[in-house]
């Protein structure tokens, strides 16, 4: 049972993600923008049929099935990684990614698209405004950031060991 406790993290991410998306779908019309701050943080209701940064294939039906299949394969892989990993930090990271991937998969299966609603204006380095995202996306990005930080600064294997 101890090795399965990390799945509670995934379940928490899925729960928070689905609740937040449901609130947005029931509160804001598609395309409606609610400015929480004047410029930096807005809420908006967007239905994204693509992947990150709205990357998609040309055919909407093909798009839906492609991303569902990719998500299912990723989820299976993440479950295996959580079960087999010996590192607590890796289990946490994989559980966060699993929760995010599962939250977005639920949307794709039920709605045919993913509900995005968080819209931030980070400094104009790459683009005018960051693409709209959701809590599932945030969970995945936070997990990957933690994993990179962990691998760079705390990984037990160093270059000299090779």
Structure description:
Helices cover 55% and strands 11% of the residues. It is built from four helices and three strands; from the N terminus they run H-E-E-H-H-E-H. It has a three-stranded antiparallel sheet. The chain has one domain.
Name some characteristics of this structure:
mainly alpha; three-stranded antiparallel β-sheet; 4 helices; disordered C terminus; single chain; 162 residues
Write the layout of secondary structure elements.
Layout: H1 7-27, E1 33-35, E2 41-48, H2 60-84, H3 88-111, E3 114-120, H4 135-153
Produce a short descriptive summary.
This protein is mainly α. The protein has one domain. 55% of the residues lie in helices and 11% in strands.
How large is the radius of gyration? 17 Å
Number of helices: 4
Report the count of strand segments: 3
Please identify the structural class as seen in this structure.
mainly alpha
**Approximate helicity band:** 40-55%
Number of domains: 1
Task: Strand order, main sheet: write it out.
Answer: 1-2-3
Beta-strand content estimate: 5-15%
Distance between the termini: 36 Å
Query: What sort of overall outline do the alpha carbons produce when their principal axes are compared?
Result: globular
What does the main sheet amount to?
3 strands, antiparallel
Task: Calculate the mean pLDDT score and round it.
Answer: 88
Low-confidence runs: 158-162
SSE sequence, one letter per element: HEEHHEH
């Amino acid at each position: 049972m101890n090795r399965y406790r990390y799945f509670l993290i995934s379940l928490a991410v899925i729960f928070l993600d689905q609740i937040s998306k449901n609130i947005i779908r029931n509160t804001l019309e598609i395309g409606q923008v609610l400015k929480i701050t004047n410029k930096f943080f807005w809420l908006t209701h967007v239905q994204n049929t693509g992947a990150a940064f709205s990357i998609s294939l040309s055919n909407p039906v093909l798009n839906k099935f492609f991303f569902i299949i990719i998500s299912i394969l990723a989820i299976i892989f993440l479950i295996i990684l959580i079960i087999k990993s010996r590192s607590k930090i890796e289990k946490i990271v994989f559980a966060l990614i699993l929760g995010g991937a599962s939250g977005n998969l639920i949307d794709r299966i039920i709605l045919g698209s993913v509900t995005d609603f968080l819209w931030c204006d980070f400094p104009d380095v790459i683009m005018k405004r960051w693409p709209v995202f959701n809590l599932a996306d945030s969970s995945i990005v936070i997990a990957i950031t933690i994993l990179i930080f962990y691998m760079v600064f705390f990984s037990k294997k160093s270059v000299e060991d090779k």
